[in-house]
Design brief:
alpha+beta; 35% helix
């Protein structure tokens, strides 16, 4: 049962559901989790109560000006408000969701004398179950419940890292120790060696160029005949002069034969006069 709070305590309801089914669930037989199908089997034979559920946050002022926060999940009689069971929400293990349904949860309640038991609760609406989970998430953020678990994990991780650092070997130089580096025979080369290397590179570059593609010739014997070279400029001038000389001679011969025929001279076809 919940103990009485001091008169200056401030309480705030984070979530309320008017109708929640409470089950006497069997103990876990493995570490996998709870199955709601086992609770509701045989026509809800394990249901023991229909309760009103409230998530109640209590803030108690401290003498130094701060406050201490605590949160409880209360299962009450919906008609009279009498407390049936309470579950202090001090760690994430106080409420566990069922594996096969989002509407069912296993809640760890604490009775008189600190006796603990695990009860199952089931919401009639999925929206109520979602709001219930959101209210618990807010409690974890405000009170640092989840952060405390993460802090423990970080402490363990840091300790493991420190052990790894201790195991690392120390390769630093001790006092009086030196490092000798042998760079071989590399150094400044003579000018003649550089010129010889450059000539070799040029020869390699020339031999690396691929030859032009081969084109077969077609002609006599399957080979292509070679074309004559083009005429020179002097040959072109000579050919033009010959063409100019032949044209007047042909014109003069044609006019002479035409004028003799026109004058009535015999063209020699009938021979000489007798």
């Amino acid at each position: 049962m919940t103990s009485s709070q001091p008169p200056d305590a401030i309480q705030r309801v984070l979530f309320i559901a008017s109708s929640v089914h409470v089950y006497n669930i069997p103990p876990l037989t493995s570490n996998k989790g709870h199955l709601a199908a086992h609770w509701t089997a045989d026509s809800n034979k394990r249901q023991i109560f229909l309760a009103r559920l409230r998530v109640l946050e209590t803030a108690i002022p401290d003498p130094d000006g701060g406050e201490s926060l605590s949160t409880e999940i209360l299962l009450e009689d919906p008609a009279t408000g009498q407390l049936f069971a309470s579950a202090p929400y001090t760690d994430v293990g106080a409420v566990e969701a069922a594996l096969d349904s989002g509407r069912f949860f296993a809640v760890r309640v604490v009775g008189d004398g600190g006796r603990k038991a695990v009860l199952g609760i089931g919401f009639e609406e999925r929206g109520e179950a979602i709001d219930f989970g959101i209210s618990l998430q807010e409690v974890r953020k405000v009170q640092g419940i989840q952060l405390e678990a993460e802090r423990k994990g970080m402490v363990g991780k840091k300790a493991a890292e420190m052990e790894v650092v201790k195991e690392k070997k120390d390769f630093s130089l001790k006092e009086g120790e030196t490092i000798h580096v042998d760079i071989g025979k590399k150094g400044r080369r003579k000018k003649g060696e550089e010129i010889a290397d450059r000539d070799k590179d040029n020869e390699r570059a020339m031999f690396s160029i691929a030859p032009p593609p081969y084109t077969p010739k077609v002609g006599v014997g399957g080979m292509m005949p070679s074309l004559p070279p083009p005429p020179s400029a002097q040959d072109v001038k000579t050919q033009r002069r010959r063409s100019r000389q032949d044209v007047p001679a042909q014109a003069t011969s044609a006019s002479a034969s035409a004028s003799a025929s026109d004058l009535g001279f015999d063209d020699g076809e009938f021979g000489e006069f007798q």
